[in-house]
Amino acid sequence: MLQVSGLHSGYGHKTVVNDVSLQVGSGEVVGLVGRNGVGKSTLLNTIMGILPVQQGSILLNEVDISHQPSYRRSSYGVAYVPQGRQIFPRLSVLDNLRVAAIAAKQNLGSCVEEVLAEFPALTPKLQSQGGSLSGGQQQILALARALIIRPKLMLLDEPTEGVQPSIVDVILEKLGEINKRLGIGILLVEQNLEFIDVLADRVYVMDKGTVVAHLPAGAIMNDKRVQHEYLGV
Amino acid sequence: MSWDQILNLLISALFSIATLALISLGLAVVFGMMKIINLAHGEFLMLGAFATLTANRLGLPLWLSMVCAPVVVGVIGLVLERGIIRHLYGRIIDTMLATWGISLVLVQLVVIAYGPATQGLATPLGSFRLGNYSVSAYSLFLVAAAGGLVVLTYVLFMRTKYGLMARAASQLPQTASALGINAGRINMLTFAVGSALSGAAGALLAPVVGVVPSMGMAFIAKAFMTVIVGGPLVLSGAMSAAALLGSVDNVVSYLSTPFLGQGALLVISIVLLRLMPNGLSGKWRRQL
Fold this sequence. Notes:
heterodimer; A: alpha/beta; four-stranded antiparallel beta sheet; 9 helices; 37% helix; 27% strand; globular; B: mainly alpha; 11 helices; 2 strands; 74% helix
């Protein structure tokens, strides 16, 4: 599904992501962990085309999208839930969903309805402004907005950050369903190792811009050495 | 005060407000949606006035000539955006310099084509009596037309797919593009829309101001004042500022002289921005 090979990227001439290779198979959940500032978000931003590729390649379903403009990449079936959720603050909840449907040229009415059936908690909030929602509500809206484009792969950047524990459980459950029932693959950047352990099949560990370990998800919970050395736990 | 005096004052206040709304609408769209400081905004108004004048002299009726102006200026805006401005997004100083250069070129091109003198365009519709006052019917038309343009802008940004994408792209450009919105295309359209609105404003003002290549200079300061006092909300902010500044200008002009009215407009803008640095709409929870 997603194949990243020898990828270098960063800001201007500065390289943050240094020779990263990783794969996410169709319908697979893959974790990506590492301390703050090791390049995880930079990697996701590069996959989405927000930052340019300096070297290496990104393939989605065998198509090289390394040099496609950002706005074309979602049409290859990849949806992004960025760090901080990035809900449009001055659009209503409904408009946050509608704009995704319009951008993806989906049928407006039916795909918004489908997503609301999936996330009924959003229905009473439809007319509220995005900026007025709590962190957890925004995270749910961001997931819903990503699902609108009917992706095959979702990139999630710290979906539990700043979210109250009760909603963390809801998000965990929803992501499990999204993966199992809809068969959507997930590349998950997350600090919460238990969250990763429940969802992911395998985990890449990043340090200083590069992948330093690749383990089954269960192993990372038990491997105190990896946790200590690369995660500062 | 007698009834005719009050009505006359009311009409002239509405006229001042409508004028401010007209000259700032296109700027509010371009500045508010794209964060572009367009120093050629006054010249877009001027081009609208000259487009009207030209079409009228070529034999079109005045009303039809006025409809040509937003089309002509919208296309000019589109060409300038594609040719120059799109290369400068995110570089605020460079954009100011470039648009200032564009304004100088536009003024000189019009001087070459039409000469530097003021051109006349007769004010249509005549006037009617209101007690002891004579009121120009065109000024009422201008107020209605300004209202119509504001409603049109509202509908365009709040009720169309383009408008929704434009608002999203202006709030979070990277997220919008990750969702599949081609921000370059949206910017091109928004700049053209802003230019067309300025063209329409120039057309509507042409019969009541002198049509002269340097006329943009007279408007640009007031237009920026209105937009900055208005704050972040493109439409409700700028239009509230137009209502406030227009009323102040008019009341002070009525009680003293138009010169002091302009001064009051400047003073109240400075005081307001001192008290509300983010403008009138800084804390409002509206969408546009």
